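Contributing new complexes? Match this layout with zinc ion.
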Amino acid sequence: MQSLVDSISRTIDWLYRWEIVPPIDTVVASVELAIKDFHYYKTAEQFESRLTNLVKALYNDTIKAPEFVDALGALIARQITLAYREAWNDEGGGQFPDYLTAASEAAILAQFDFVDQFARDIVDARIDKTPIDGLLARVPLWANRYNEAYNDAVMLITKEAGGNLEWVLGETEQHCSTCANLNGIVARASEWEALNVKPQNAPNDKIECGGWRCDCTLTPTDKRRTPGAYGRIEEAIL
Ligand SMILES: [Zn+2]
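Output block (do not edit by hand):
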């Protein structure tokens, strides 16, 4: 954000040097809009309200399926891109690496089929006069894409560095037995990836809670690997 502010200041200075007085109200308004737009759909709640409106609009036939697909596709692409950038800022640093660009692009592509299917299901529900509730119930799953993409990126970054990840129990009051058994296990990022064990990611067939209410994390750590970590993870999961 600082670089955005810097470049705006430089532009205004430059305009003044040419004795052009920038219309400051317009500048402020457009900057505020840019910042708001940048952050707006970042949180799950904001994404959820935007997608809820899109689902209702398609269900009520105020928008058409291609419009819905474009809008949701753009939202998802943005979430995933932001999540990978943020993970890199938190756990990496320096120039954004090619392997993360490739992984984020693959993650975005992998969503397209689901987006198309969701649009078809909404149109079918309208035609069949099925209530909208079942469709709206799927919105939170989409809204969690940001967190999932962030976690995937952290796993990749840690793996690339040859580092370890620890399963840290979330703050959900009741934990499923799988998450409780995984709690505190430190294994190489490559091992977690090879076993394909991740928190959240509902519907998650590796953990008893299905990932629905899970807020556990795989957190990068300097701690030593748990003895027999790979086998212990295998024993813990379903
Ligand atoms: Zn959990």
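Reviewers usually confirm one structural detail per submission. For this one: The longest strand covers residues 164-168.
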